[in-house]
DNA sequence: CGGGTTATTTGAACAATGTTCAAATGGATA
DNA sequence: TATCCATTTGAACATTGTTCAAATAACCCG
């Protein structure tokens, strides 16, 4: 049996269209936010009918989730590329990389955090797993810094620190309220990590 | 001229209806989230027509904003009631009170943070002022704890700490991902504040 | 190449929901 | 009671997600 299937014309067009649809949707979310995304706009921008969007994605949520999945993937790649030799510098690097990604793709990240499934359907498990895996990138340096602590505690601590940093960045970038100036925000994040590490007896007092 | 105006039957009915509409809307948001709020449901629950809701509030945003304003007012009252004798205990108390209010009224607080105006209209200034004033409650103990620092720096620090705590609580309560158990969350918040204060040389190392 | 078969695409129609406004209603007033 | 005007009403409209039967296009085989 031939495993390597020849790609038919149908499949190629289908794949091209799918990529185009995702790209169009991502651009719209990235520039004007999740709430500005409309099926009809996506369809007309991709030069196809409304029905074709439904053919490719089960429903509106399906399209959003696909964009969000790719966003998590990109974030994961950025965070995974942070140098990890020294665990302290690793933590500072992760925080700064998260800030950088958030600043550059604020609407995409907000889409990830703000999106709620229609009709109280459950959040898809695979995306949850992806998010958890990205969370876990913060876990590694914390384990190295606190080798004697209960690993469960350390996991909670890592998640707590991520949530705190996320709060600082997310509210700091919110233009609706008075946004924190970018330089100040960068300083705040670094200061938060440093203060936290000092408080945990990992860095010396200043 | 008579300043104390006799309340006419018209006015009384109008005020009663207004209160009822707000109450109905708040209950709906509190129990099922902002997205579940529908004009028609509110109208029928208040036993009046759709148009009457529009008569009382300019539009849908107007109703939501009214509920959100009251939420900020209630939060402000709760936080203002926290004992403020010792600034360190004051900070712990504020964090715990915020956690308590958030836990009890999660959907109402999410409504406050998630709501976006229709058509990119600006966020109303009076509500922004209310939120800022509530933020400022955290400011006072920080000033007492860091009397020698630049007040502008302290203000940024206070906002940073609020944002961090908000992130910890908000993501911690999110059931969509794996929610942090309530007791664990309470511990995390207290631990965050303590670590932060130690790192800022305000509390001794443990 | 042609005809049959199957997959895909299309867009009109539907459902849900925020919004408007002319007519009806009802409280105030003389 | 009669007139006047504020308020209320709900039908109609606009937007937007969703469905599905008909049209179209790709594939396959003789």
Label this structure with key terms.
homodimer, 206 residues, mainly alpha, Arc Repressor Mutant, subunit A, Tetracycline Repressor, domain 2, 2 domains, 9 helices, DNA-binding
Care to describe what's here?
- The structure is a homodimer of 206-residue chains.
- Chain A has 2 domains: 49 residues, Homeodomain-like (Arc Repressor Mutant, subunit A), CATH 1.10.10.60; 140 residues, Tetracycline Repressor, domain 2, CATH 1.10.357.
- Chain A is an all-alpha fold.
- The first copy, chain A, contains 9 helices and no strands.
- Chain A starts with 8 loop residues before the first helix and ends in a 7-residue tail after the last helix.
- The model of chain A has no long low-confidence stretch (mean pLDDT 93).
- Chains A and B meet through helix 7, helix 8 and helix 9 of A and helix 7, helix 8 and helix 9 of B.
So what's the CATH class of the largest domain in chain A?
Mainly Alpha
Report the structural category of chain A.
mainly alpha
Biggest sheet descriptor of chain A = none
Q: Quaternary status of these chains? A: homodimer
* CATH fold-level label of the largest domain in chain A: Tetracycline Repressor, domain 2
- The succession of helices and strands of chain A, N to C, reads HHHHHHHHH
Radius of gyration of chain A over alpha carbons? 20 Å
Number of strands of chain A: 0
CATH superfamily of the largest domain in chain A: Tetracycline Repressor, domain 2
Average pLDDT for all residues of chain A: 93
């Amino acid at each position: 049996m031939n495993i390597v299937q020849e790609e038919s014309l149908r499949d190629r067009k289908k794949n091209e269209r799918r990529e185009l649809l995702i790209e169009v949707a991502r651009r719209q979310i990235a520039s004007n936010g999740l709430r500005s995304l409309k099926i009809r706009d996506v369809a007309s921008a991709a030069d196809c009918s409304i029905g074709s969007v439904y053919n490719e994605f089960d429903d509106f949520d399906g399209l959003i989730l696909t964009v969000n999945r790719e966003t998590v993937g990109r974030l994961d790649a950025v965070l995974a590329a942070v140098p990890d030799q020294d665990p302290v510098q690793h933590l500072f690097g992760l925080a700064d990389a998260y800030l950088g990604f958030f600043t550059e793709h604020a609407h995409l990240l907000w889409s990830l955090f703000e999106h709620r499934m229609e009709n109280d359907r459950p959040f898809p498990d695979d995306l949850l797993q992806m998010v958890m895996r990205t969370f876990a990138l913060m876990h590694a340096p914390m384990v190295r810094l606190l080798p004697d602590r209960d690993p469960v505690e350390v996991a909670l601590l890592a998640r707590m620190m991520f949530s705190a940093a996320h709060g600082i960045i997310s509210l700091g970038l919110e233009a609706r309220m008075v946004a924190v100036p970018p330089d100040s925000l960068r300083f705040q994040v670094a200061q938060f990590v440093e203060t936290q590490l000092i408080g945990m007896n990992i860095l010396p007092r200043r």
